[in-house]
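Practice record 12: protein with pyridoxal-5'-phosphate.
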Amino acid sequence: MKLNTNYDKLQNSYLFVEIANRLKKYTAANPSANIIKMGIGDVTRPLAPCVVEAGLKAMSEMGKAETFRGYSPDSQGYEFLRNAISAYYASFGVKVGAGEIHVSDGAKSDCGNIVDMFDTDNTVLIPDPVYPVYFDSNIMSGRKVVFCDATEENDFAPLPDDKTDCDIIYLCSPNNPTGSAYTFTQLKKWVDFANARGAVIIYDAAYEAFVTDSDVPRSIFAIDGARTCAIELCSFSKTAGFTGTRCGYTVVPNELCGGKLAKMWARRQSTKFNGTSYIQQRMAEAAYSAEGVKQNLENIHAYQKNAKLISDTLTEAGIYHTGGKNSPYIWLKCNGDSWDFFDKLLTQANVVGTPGSGFGKNGEGFFRLTAFNTYEKTQEAMQRMKKILG
Ligand code: PLP
């Protein structure tokens, strides 16, 4: 037996462990400290009432012989949910057929699994800083990874140039961790680049529901030409608070590789995945109903209000940052080592964030705060930060 030695090439994923360790040490020494957590990218507000109602109804159906359901008839997802997702896209003017949608238990699984579709002999382009799953899943399967630099100079929204050489491109917009978002014009440059060289873009739209600017697309399929070069991953986690209940989907357009990729993905999923639970899919359907969208928007607006407060506070203090608009993340320049800034914020303001260096080399000197908290706690954190930043 030979192990997959690609795993030896992975760096230790120490970021959130190290944050937890430092926090534990500090609170042990300062038990009365009133810590405000603005670090981990997890939602804090409860599920929308109509989603809970749909979940309870589906659960009750499972308890009656006449409405009980076992395995889903189709690992691609129940038609009722794929139709609801297709209608959701249509609500912001993007045409995606129900047959092109593949329901899953979340975007992280799809991110990790989609690499099965591609030969190892492909060069993968990943922006730095990055959501680590794109990098790690390609290292695990032995692919060559190159980086494009997301920096202050390009407002953390890098574009392709003549030197960019790759076959598979990962883009995340609105971005985790930087909160930056591509405009229609910028994203069109990536689509044209990918089509010109026969590359594929794996587009992560997990934060699309946070888009507010009219020049920022909510889907790569809002861009002409994307249907011949892009796969879109999306999730109910941040849109509808499903981080603990789990549901996501991948859109593989029929035009991609003459329809071959959609068939391969369906085959991959039907071989290795038995579908997301019926209850979960009914909850997801409710999340994309007119009432669900309305109720979920109340949660999104609450996070957006926090994000704006953080962004306004930083602007007032003259601190360069991206995000806060179109995103629950705020990426700020901390002028120096990002772990030193973590310690300063923890010990002097009792606020916990995430050091940018944990997301890649270009993250050094930057820091991520999240809007996933209450307005009162965000206000309190900003008051405390003002004192140490001013
Ligand atoms: N993609 C990005 C950019 C994320 O930030 C996250 C979660 O934080 C995910 C995907 C994972 O989403 P899910 O909860 O659907 O697995």
